Amino acid sequence: MNEVVKVLKERRSIRDYLSKPIPREILEDIIDCGRLAPSANNVQPWLFVVVTEEGRKRELAGLATYGKFIASAAACVAVFCEKDNPHLVEDGSAATENIIIAAKSYGIDSCWVAGYRRQYSDAVRKALNVPEKYELVSLVALGYSDKNAERPKKQLNQVLHWEKY
């Protein structure tokens, strides 16, 4: 099986992490993959804030309704896009997916926490000192884990149709 396809098929959302830091050069490479995601008209409207400091991770975990596990992650990546971009959700989501897949290729697990237009979005932006022209799209918890998520996925024949439904 192709290595990229293998990573895509093995990736699952993991919310329990070991207390092991991720080397800075790996984090930079992961973000570089996010930067290289496709964007509408190649506008590349994103901004990434990587948080590794314990207190700041706890602060983000406290803000995100369903992101309490961010506190125990080795890092959290906040993905922002320019508010005036009509494709900010699509572009930010493409960058987020690249980050998650790149992390998995390094053996780093992750969990995507929704950020777009959540009640905590602006508080996260302010906590990270991000200019008001940006909108939060997602928070991505990253970390090494010894857990294996066995959440079932639908079978291909349940979701695939050819030519028409």
From TrEMBL:
Domain called Nitroreductase: residue spans: 8-70, 82-144
Keywords attached to this entry: Oxidoreductase
InterPro entries, sorted: Nitroreductase (IPR029479), Nitroreductase-like (IPR000415)
Molecular-function annotations in GO: oxidoreductase activity
Regions crossing the membrane: none
KW ATP-binding (keyword) present: no
SUPFAM superfamilies registered for this protein in UniProt: FMN-dependent nitroreductase-like
Pfam families per record: Nitroreductase
UniProt keyword Oxidoreductase, yes or no: yes
PANTHER family given in the database record: NAD(P)H NITROREDUCTASE YDGI-RELATED, NADH DEHYDROGENASE_NAD(P)H NITROREDUCTASE XCC3605-RELATED
Family: Belongs to the nitroreductase family.
Protein known as: Nitroreductase family protein
Record organism: Biomaibacter acetigenes
Lineage: Bacteria, Bacillati, Bacillota, Clostridia, Thermosediminibacterales
